[in-house]
Design brief:
Elements: H1 3-29, E1 42-47, E2 50-51, E3 56-59, E4 64-69, E5 82-85, E6 94-99, E7 104-109, E8 117-122, E9 138-144, H2 157-173, E10 193-195, H3 196-211, H4 217-233, E11 245-247, E12 263-264, H5 265-281, H6 287-301, E13 319-320, H7 339-347, H8 355-362, E14 373-374, E15 377-378, H9 411-428, E16 445-448, E17 451-454, H10 466-470, H11 477-490, E18 496-497, E19 500-501, E20 505-506, E21 516-517, H12 523-537, H13 540-546, H14 549-557
Parallel strand pairs: 3-9
Antiparallel strand pairs: 1-2, 1-4, 4-7, 5-8, 6-7, 8-9, 10-11, 12-13, 14-15, 16-17, 18-19, 20-21
Domain SbsA Ig-like: 54-144
Domain Glycoamylase-like: 331-549
Protein name: Beta-glucosidase
Length: 563
């Protein structure tokens, strides 16, 4: 073998090696050879065929979840690192199925529970088959649907109204204070606290109870005698007005707040509305009914309405304290729940106010007017969207708004349109609270999770109060009945309990961190339910209260017509 041949062979070999090396580098640069994954991410989560964004509502309790990752997953890293928990933090048993080269995980569970909040969590400890960790911890939240099955047997609408009235009546009959007979403030407060305004509503409820056969007239009369005797002989009063809260055994004031330890004129007006209604009902000539009427007249004539003008101003003041005098300094101005206060103050035979006090104090010489349209409904009075619905309920438990008007408003239109604005707001649901619908509506003052608030379209925190829609039945019967039926048949015994519907609820399991149902009852919310249902059915309380000659005189004095 010659040296020349050897050199030639060597250079051919070297050329081949260089070509091969260069080719390998080029292949590497072009990615022809797979490289280890640098990250592991989730591409999407699919639930029941839809891509899941956190906050997915109304999920079927029989569901499946598919997780699609950017690479193959190590099966041993999944258990304990991909979990589902309910709103109490309890782990949901799951099983996993791996697909598409282990880059897709299907999750199966047993049927979930209705109206529950669930969190799918993916830990950073999840690894790919190449031992690359998941890029970050991720949580995806979803909520299951309402159980739409009927919880109570279907009955006629008339029987349903009977059922609701009878159960609600129990709050004022069974749960009344055993000494005074007055209505306890709420079911979850100190049982000695009775409420003046709520007791006025309760007196009206007693009359419904008699007429509906829940109790006899003799029983109702005996309870009224107990109440009136307590008010006359034991209850604290200041210039004829009663405090917001009292001790149901002794009649002593229980302060509502630091300086609210004396007269509450608005609460007193609700009490007087109830008492006058009872006076018009118990018209018998016997000694018992005659004495009852006389005692009611004594209480009614003792209220010094005009004294609450605070030195003859053209406005009424809400509070007076024996220790702080007028320190709260709250003028009673409209539009709100206090129309009845001015009507009764004008109606008094002993301490009446003049029309100027109504026009300047309550109506602000027309400042009370609104006149704007909301959702296509003209609102005669009040703030934007009307405020909470109790504005159209408390005073109108006795005052009949049908055909009633004055220089400021048509009150039939006011009560109806405010109700329909509230209804349409909830149905439209601009804040996207789960559960709001044409059958779940009604914003008013009520308990909410962790507190109490006056809910309205401008203060909507996702809590619905049954009293709001149900007590609007005289104004919007179709919408109110739809809500009542949903609350009774669908929400069932989660909401309808010992004394009727509990105070409020939220179905928004995500925004409010779990479906919430109040366990409380409030006198001022239970009262309008039974009374306004009756006004819708028979106009009983409207007819009684409006038959008072003093009220007829007061309405006329203030410039009302149509009554």
């Amino acid at each position: 073998m010659s040296l020349q041949f050897f050199k030639k062979s060597f250079f051919l070999w070297l050329f081949f090696v260089i070509i091969q090396f260069g080719s390998c580098k080029k292949n590497d640069q072009n990615g022809d050879k797979p490289q280890p994954a640098k990250s592991l991410a989730i591409e999407n989560i699919v639930m029941n065929g839809k891509v899941l964004a956190s906050g997915y509502y109304d999920v079927n309790i029989r569901s499946y979840i598919i997780l699609k990752f950017s690479g193959a997953i190590s099966r041993t890293s999944v258990n304990g690192n991909i979990t589902i928990k309910d709103q109490q933090g309890k782990l949901v048993p799951v099983s996993f199925n791996f697909e598409n080269g282990d880059s897709i995980i299907s999750i199966k569970t047993n049927p979930l529970t209705f109206l529950n909040r669930y969190t799918v969590s993916i830990s950073s400890s999840v690894q790919s088959t190449e031992q690359v960790n998941f890029d970050s911890e991720k949580d995806f939240i979803f909520a299951t649907s309402i159980d739409s099955s009927r919880k109570f047997p279907l009955i006629t609408d008339s029987a349903l109204l009977d059922t609701v009235q009878k159960r609600t009546f129990k709050y004022f009959w069974d749960y009344a204070h055993p000494v005074s007979g007055l209505a306890r403030e709420r079911s979850n407060a100190t049982p000695e606290i009775v409420t003046t305004g709520g007791s006025g509503f309760g007196i009206m409820a007693l009359i419904v109870g008699i007429e509906r056969g829940f109790i006899t007239k003799a029983q109702g009369l005996a309870r009224l005698q107990t109440i009136v005797a307590f008010l006359k002989n034991k209850a604290s009063e200041f210039h004829g007005a009663f405090p917001h809260w009292m001790n149901g055994s002794t009649g002593a004031v229980i302060p509502f707040s630091t300086d609210d330890n004396g007269a509450d004129l608005v609460e007193t007006s609700y009490l007087m509305m109830g008492l006058l209604t009872a006076r018009q009902y118990f018209t018998g000539t016997g000694a018992s009914e005659t004495a009852l009427r006389n005692d009611i007249n004594s209480l009614w004539n003792g209220v010094e309405w005009n004294w609450f003008r605070q030195n003859n101003q053209d406005v009424l003041y809400w509070h007076w304290s024996p220790t702080a005098n007028w320190a709260i300094n709250q003028k009673i101005r409209g539009w709100n729940e206090c129309l009845i206060t001015y009507v009764l103050a004008a109606s008094s035979s002993t301490h009446a106010i003049t029309k100027d006090v109504y026009d300047k104090g309550w109506a602000g010489d027309g400042a009370i007017k609104n006149g704007n349209d909301y959702f296509g409904y003209r609102l005669p009075l009040g703030t934007d969207f009307g405020g909470p619905l109790f504005f159209e309920q408390y005073s109108f438990m006795g005052i009949n708004p049908v055909k009633l008007s004055d220089r400021y408003a048509d009150y039939q239109l006011q009560t109806k349109n405010h109700t329909l604005i509230n209804y349409t707001y909830c149905r439209t649901n601009p804040k996207n609270y789960f559960g709001y619908s044409d059958s779940v509506w009604g914003l008013t003052a009520s308990d909410i999770k962790g507190g109490y608030t006056a809910s309205s379209p401008t203060n909507d925190q996702g809590f619905i109060a049954p009293t709001a829609a149900i007590s609007s039945i005289a104004y919007a019967p179709a919408q109110s009945m739809a809500a009542l039926k949903f609350y009774y048949y669908v929400l069932g015994d989660r909401l309808f309990k010992e004394y009727g519907f509990t105070d409020a609820f939220s179905l928004d399991v995500i925004k409010n961190n779990g479906a919430w149902f109040a366990d409380s009852y409030l006198a001022i919310d239970q009262g309008p339910i039974i009374v306004m249902i009756e006004n819708y059915r028979t106009k009983l309380l409207w007819n009684l209260f409006m038959s008072c000659p003093e009220v007829q005189n007061g309405l006329g004095k203030l410039g009302f017509s149509g009554f």
